[in-house]
Amino acid sequence: MSKGLLLFFSTMLLVSCVKDKSIAVTQIEGFAPDIMGCSCYYAVDEAHFQKQQFIYIDSYETTPAYISINDSLIAVDPKNVQKSEYTLDVEIEEEIQLDQERYHREGTLIITDKNGAVYSTSIYGECGC
């Protein structure tokens, strides 16, 4: 019985020491100032996309890309080559050509911070020139 209690309390102590592993991803209102020309911009859904409330923006899959954490615009490397506090995984599950230079895309965005916290959301957006 005492071994069971010791194991229980040891487990509780260990679990209570684990920090909250969440990432406070916030929306980017409009376009980032240095993203011009060809770009990709994604929101969590069509309604947010129409309001230009984006969750991820890049210069057509090149550096820099932008996410917003706690309402602060953070430049990140979309290909995860440069060391950063965050790594990204943009998984495109559907792509529809809208015109000669523009594509509608839907998929999943996964953001992982250096402490192992993971944020995952569906994305709805466009890439084009």
Describe the structure.
This protein is an alpha+beta fold and 129 residues long. It has one domain (20-128). Helices cover 16% and strands 47% of the residues. The strands form 2 sheets. Strands 1, 3, 5, 6, 7, 8, 9 and 10 form an 8-stranded antiparallel beta sheet that branches. Strand 6 and strand 7 form a beta hairpin.
The major sheet is characterized as: 8 strands, antiparallel
Rounded to an integer in angstroms, the radius of gyration calculated over CA atoms is 19 Å
Distance between the termini: 68 Å
- Measured as a percent range, the helix fraction is 10-25%
Low-confidence stretches: 4-19
Number of helices: 2
Share of β-strand residues:
over 45%
Shape: globular
Q: Output mean pLDDT.
A: 86
The total count of strands amounts to: 10
The figure for the number of domains is 1
Succession of helices and strands: HEEEHEEEEEEE
Structural class: alpha+beta
Which terms summarize this structure?
alpha+beta, 129 residues
